[in-house]
Amino acid sequence: MTTPTGKPPLDRKTLIDLGFIEARAKVLDVAAFLDRLDRAPATNVMTDFRVDAIRAALVIALDASPARAERILNSWSDPSTQPVAHADGKAARGAHLPR
């Protein structure tokens, strides 16, 4: 088996050696973001669909099923198939509003 570039796939140890520090930093970034949210002064908005989407993605990331990245991206994607009559003018949100 080879990769699309014709090279043999990397073994687990090599993948860990090459990617661990970067993945570790990303996990710490997410944890720090959630810590900052916990420390932030309370407002009338206690929960936010985007934060809920991150928390749900963490559950997917920790399970042992394949295609985690694909499943996370699908969970963040708007499942609607009909175009909206009028866009709300806001920038991309990174996750869809619950329906």
In summary, what is this structure?
It is built from 3 helices and no strands.
Give structural attributes.
mainly alpha; 0% strand; 52% helix; single chain; 99 residues; extended; 3 helices
Describe how the helices and strands are arranged.
Layout: H1 12-39, H2 49-62, H3 68-76
Describe this structure in words.
It is a single chain. With 99 residues, the protein is mostly helical. Among the domains are: 10-40; 43-79, no CATH class. The chain is built from 3 helices and no strands. The longest helix is centred in the first third of the chain and has 28 residues, at 12-39.
The amount of beta strand, in percent, is under 5%
Q: Which of globular, elongated, flat, extended, rod-shaped describes the shape?
A: extended
Largest sheet: none
| Tally of DSSP helical segments | 3
Instruction: Outline the low-pLDDT stretches.
Output: none
Integer average pLDDT: 88
Which bin fits the share of residues in helices?
Answer: 40-55%
Count of DSSP E strands? 0
Spell the H/E element sequence. HHH
Rg from Cα: 18 Å
Q: How far apart, in Å, are the first and last alpha carbons?
A: 43 Å
